Amino acid sequence: MRSQAARTHQAVERAITSSINDVTSAHAFGWFAHCGLIYLRIAVGLGAGFNYVGEREGDLLNSFQADSYFLTNAAIFYRRDNWRFALNFKNLFDVNYIKSVENGRLGANSPGETFTVIGSVSVQF
Fold first, then answer.
1. What does the alpha-carbon distance between residue 111 and residue 100 come to, in Å, rounded to a whole number?
2. Are 116 and 89 in contact (CB under 8 A)?
3. Residues 66-88: pLDDT tens digits?
4. Which among 11, 31, 57, 94 has most CB atoms closer than 10 A?
């Protein structure tokens, strides 16, 4: 797309058409996951993210270890003109984990967030 150097609406449409025609079935899934489905001024997108934290010492004396954890997050959005609607899913599989260990006098560990859904609506002026 960048190599097309499109500066007008028509040039952008030609560049998109050319790019779509160059996508093979082997590239289609990765292309969709990265760019979303674009048709005129409508866009639908999907996303996924992963977080891994390994085992770590629980206090300064190394008297215990906090377990490792693996989180999965996902998102879906719909965009039309200057409107955007999105749903974000955090900790998709509701993993129990220790987000942080405290080394203060209280020595309390902070639990991680449970499965969370965040909806958002935005408009661009």
1. 7
2. yes
3. 899 999 999 999 988 889 999 99
4. 31
